[in-house]
């Protein structure tokens, strides 16, 4: 268990996840209060990754339920293996006949077969899906309900019942209660508004795009080999791009992809040519790329105007070839 909020910060950082105290506080309170966390925010800001590193830090097995439109109870809870049940019936038909032998009436024969229900209606015919796996687990687990906003409102209502009581009812077996109460995290990309009933049962956590300082720390953690000045230029330009009216705003995952791409290209500076050639790494729509290129041109013009306003400078004779400057220098 996490002993304090500061311990959450340090333990998650050991797993390569850089978070602020606000995120750590919600994670700690979820553990202390036994309440699920509803993590909302743009795609790619680390919501799913947070669940993974919390599970690792606590030594819990992660069980993931990926939500999508049309998801129903059978796919999330359990499935009944009718074919296996039928096979058992065929294999044991001689024993069934022997059980009914000597019965004086149809009612007595039916009662004898009913007494053997446990043979044909048992857990051996149940295929557990993520929700039942989390409830029936012998060890404490972390249940991740990923992208819950993609599921239908009807499934959300069913999920509320499960998260309230941590028990499920299987008609053939009865009610199955949780052996160990799982730690639950739900993620949402804000595709639709979650119900008040769900939010009331959860601690709420909004993860937004990080500040420049935090994003630099994340970049240093995930791509430590990148040059520090190049990392600063990359993050600064990324924040300028996020201010644009884009169809798909690049997130932290795109920042990391861009940094790794620059390393693969042996780039030492983020010059205009390099930015133009690699914008498709962080932007997924042509219209967004065109807007970003215009922003880059404006940025270069602004830098040129600032340099001109500063007046001429005395240039000493260089003793070696000058280094190529990036777009922000």
Note down, in words, how this protein is organized.
The protein is an alpha/beta fold and 329 residues long. It folds into three domains: 5-77 and 134-206, Rossmann fold (3-Layer(aba) Sandwich), CATH 3.40.50.300; 79-125, no CATH class; 212-308. Helix content is 51%, strand content 12%. The chain contains 16 helices and nine strands. It has helices at 5-14, 21-33, 47-58, 73-76, 82-91, 93-100, 106-114, 117-120, 130-136, 153-165, 196-200, 212-222, 228-242, 252-264, 272-282, 286-309, and strands spanning 37-40, 61-66, 78-80, 126-128, 141-146, 167-170, 174-177, 183-188, 203-206. The strands form three sheets. A five-stranded parallel sheet has the order 2-5-8-1-9, sandwiched between helices. A two-stranded antiparallel ribbon has the order 3-4. A two-stranded antiparallel ribbon has the order 6-7. Strand 6 and strand 7 form a beta hairpin. Helix 12 packs across helix 13 and helix 15 runs antiparallel to helix 16 (286-309). The chain is elongated, with a radius of gyration of 29 Å. The protein starts with a helix and ends in a 20-residue tail after the last helix.
């Amino acid at each position: 268990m996490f002993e304090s909020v500061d311990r959450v910060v340090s333990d998650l950082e050991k797993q390569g996840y850089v978070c602020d105290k606000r995120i750590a506080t919600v994670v700690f309170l979820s553990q202390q209060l036994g309440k699920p966390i509803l993590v909302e925010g743009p795609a790619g800001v680390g919501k799913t990754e947070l669940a993974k590193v919390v599970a690792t830090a606590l030594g819990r097995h992660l069980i993931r339920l990926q939500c999508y439109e049309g998801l129903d109870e059978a796919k999330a809870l359990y499935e009944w293996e009718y074919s296996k049940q039928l096979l058992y019936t065929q294999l044991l038909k001689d024993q069934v006949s022997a059980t009914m032998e000597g019965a004086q009436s149809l009612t007595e024969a039916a009662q004898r077969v009913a007494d053997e229900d446990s043979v044909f209606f048992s857990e051996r015919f149940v295929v557990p899906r993520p929700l039942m796996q989390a409830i029936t687990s012998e060890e404490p687990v972390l249940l991740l309900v990923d992208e819950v906003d993609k599921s239908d409102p009807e499934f959300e209502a069913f999920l509320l019942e499960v998260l309230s009581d941590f028990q499920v009812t299987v008609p053939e077996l009865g009610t199955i209660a949780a052996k160990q109460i799982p730690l639950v995290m739900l993620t949402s990309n804000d595709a639709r508004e979650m119900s008040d009933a769900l939010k009331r049962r959860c601690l709420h956590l909004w993860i937004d795009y990080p500040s420049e300082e935090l994003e630099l720390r994340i970049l240093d953690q995930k791509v430590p080999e990148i040059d520090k000045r190049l990392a600063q230029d990359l993050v600064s330009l990324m924040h300028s791009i996020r201010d644009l009216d884009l169809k798909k705003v690049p997130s932290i995952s795109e920042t990391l992809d861009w940094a790794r791409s620059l390393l693969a290209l042996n780039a030492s500076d983020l010059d205009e040519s390099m930015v133009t050639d690699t914008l498709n790494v962080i932007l997924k729509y042509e219209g967004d790329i065109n807007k970003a290129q215009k922003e880059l041109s404006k940025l270069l013009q602004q830098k040129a105007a600032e340099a001109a306003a500063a007046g001429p400078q005395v240039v000493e004779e260089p003793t070696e070839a000058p280094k190529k400057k990036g777009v922000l220098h």
